[in-house]
Write a structure and sequence with these properties.
Blueprint lengths: L6 H19 L8 H11 L6 H12 L4 H23 L8 E2 L2 E2 L1 H5 L1 H25 L4 H15 L4 H16 L6 H26 L4 H28 L10 H5 L1 H17 L9 H12 L3
Antiparallel strand pairs: 1-2
Helix pairs in contact: 1-3, 1-4, 2-6, 3-4, 3-9, 4-6, 4-9, 6-7, 7-9, 8-9, 9-10, 10-12, 12-13
Amino acid sequence: MGETFDLAEHMAKRTALVDKMLDELLPKESEPPEALHKAMRYAVFSGGKRLRPTLVLDACEAVGGDVMKALPAACAIELIHTYSLVHDDLPCIDNDDVRRGMPTCHKVFGEAIALLCGDALLTLAFEVLSKEQMKVGVATDVVIETIGMIAEAVGHLGMVGGQVMDVEAQSMLTRDMHLSEELIREIHKRKTGALITVAVEVGAMIGGASVEQRKALRAYAHELGIAFQITDDLLDAEGNHAKKGEPNIATVLGIERSRQLATEAVERAIENLACFGERALPLRAIAKFVLLRKR
């Protein structure tokens, strides 16, 4: 099935759809405070693949839902993802000067504006979830549930908590302390996997998924998140981009074992899509793409 599916074309169409709405949602650069609004647009339109919003839309479609009803949530997820990258790049966290071949937000606008840019993007995401979902006809109870799910996934129990664990792990490595595979996996589950998982779950819920469908898609997303982070670590390790002092599963388990684990996770992810037939073709293709992706 996957051999006849053009994932690049599919992703391009999804990106165009998401970017159009993001352009409408984000304040214009000319609106005061201009520095903040320029930074927000710079960060959002910096060449991202829009993987997470695509997962929202594809999960919605897999259960027979209306993609346009899931579009606001997809955009909110991308705003949250972008905020996390802006903050991750700051000197107090990862101290990165370049992202996607471009200077990071704080290198262009300064640390204070970059910090506030991330704050503004996160806040805008929840404004979108509360207002824009209602406009496209998402039921009130679903709107409330999506807000709660996403807040939990990106807060202290999810993405932010994972970031804290990552900072603490880096401190351990600078003191030559050993990081266990279990600890690294937990960091990845929270820091990276939580947002991927909730993207799929929210799309499914907006699409009207049954309990069993949501369970299957949650399992798919969990395995996809594992594969995604392992391949991320593999790309760093194989390209000699792994930073000293950063948790990396490939440097702990080795290249071959890590590649095997990523492959097994993708296989399990695809197995969980069996009940959706052809409607899950994009989700299957995305899982396979994770193993082949490059920087």
